[in-house]
TrEMBL record:
PANTHER family: 5-KETO-D-GLUCONATE 5-REDUCTASE, ALCOHOL DEHYDROGENASE, PUTATIVE (AFU_ORTHOLOGUE AFUA_3G03445)-RELATED. Pfam families: adh_short. The lineage of its organism: Bacteria, Pseudomonadati, Pseudomonadota, Alphaproteobacteria, Sphingomonadales. This is SDR family oxidoreductase. It comes from Alteraurantiacibacter buctensis. Keywords: Oxidoreductase. It comes from the Bacteria. Gene3D superfamilies: NAD(P)-binding Rossmann-like Domain. The keyword Hydrolase does not apply. Belongs to the short-chain dehydrogenases/reductases (SDR) family. InterPro entries: NAD(P)-bd_dom_sf, SDR_fam.
Length: 269
């Protein structure tokens, strides 16, 4: 029987790359996003007749059940659910508005919970061998200055992944996380918060940090459903951070403080 994967955030970036990877392996792909035009662009890159697209706001819990039921009816089953939709954000907490805080927590954390809850019965029906893949981030490895909200949401995704991996193992459902360093996606062209105009991408470049190609993330997503490893640490920056966090956490602590001081100096504080 043909296998299928449902991917949120499928209009661009990591979601698009995962769609291309799984479609190349012969899987039927379900795309979900608020960006309908972007999903059409993704579908144009996939084999004809091998995908379906759905407009979905991941923080709309009832909509999850409806959309997944529609996709399951079209695809026949759901073997993998990729909880990939997310928003980038940054800056000191003092710059973040309540609205920005709530939106980030809603999309990056609550949306992942909603997706897991809605996908569970479908993944259970397709088990053994079905999987939930959650897109976390290297930001979950250690809290850095100017990433308090974003890092906290991704740390929550990491913790959720570990909990569900234990809860669902006996039912034959794998639960995995992808933890990449910076990915050069269209979302990085946005400023980190409303008080700033500089795109996030510019700050990454100025800091001399490397971008991890989305194809690397898609490759690890494919590997994640075939190997017994809960977290996939992706990219040179992420792997270095993991090593330092384990063996030299004080270095990360110092770096976090330096980042905070550099930000304050740029503001003349």
């Amino acid at each position: 029987m043909r296998k299928s994967i449902f991917i949120t955030g499928g209009a661009s970036g990591i979601g698009r790359a995962i769609a291309q990877r799984f479609a190349a392996e012969g899987w039927f792909v379900g795309l979900a996003d608020l960006n309908v035009a972007g999903m059409a662009e993704t579908q144009a890159l996939l084999p004809a007749g091998m995908s379906a697209a759905y407009r979905l706001d991941v923080i709309d819990a009832p909509a999850w059940d409806t959309v997944l039921a529609e996709f399951a009816a079209t695809a026949g089953r759901i073997d993998v659910m990729a909880n990939n939709a997310g928003l980038p954000a940054g800056g000191p907490l003092r710059e973040i508005t309540v609205e920005e805080l709530d939106r980030l927590i809603d999309v990056n954390l609550k949306g992942v919970f909603y997706g897991a809850m809605a996908a569970y019965p479908h993944l259970k029906a397709a088990a053994p061998g079905s999987a939930l893949i959650n897109t976390a981030s290297a930001a979950a490895l250690y809290g850095m200055a100017n990433q308090s909200v974003y890092g906290a949401t991704k740390a929550g995704v990491k913790s959720l992944t570990e909990s569900l991996e234990a809860e669902w193992a006996d039912e034959g459902i794998r639960v995995r996380s992808l933890m990449p360093s910076f990915i050069d996606t269209p979302l990085l062209m946005n400023p980190p918060n409303r008080s700033r105009n500089t795109p996030i991408r510019d700050a990454v470049v100025a800091a001399g940090l490397e971008f991890t190609p989305v194809e690397f993330v898609a490759f690890e997503a494919w590997r994640s459903i075939h190997e017994d490893k809960v977290h996939r640490i992706i990219g040179k920056t992420a792997k270095k951070m993991r090593r330092v966090a384990k063996w030299m956490p004080n270095l990360l602590r110092k770096r976090a403080r330096l980042l905070a001081e550099a930000h304050d100096s740029s503001e003349g504080r």
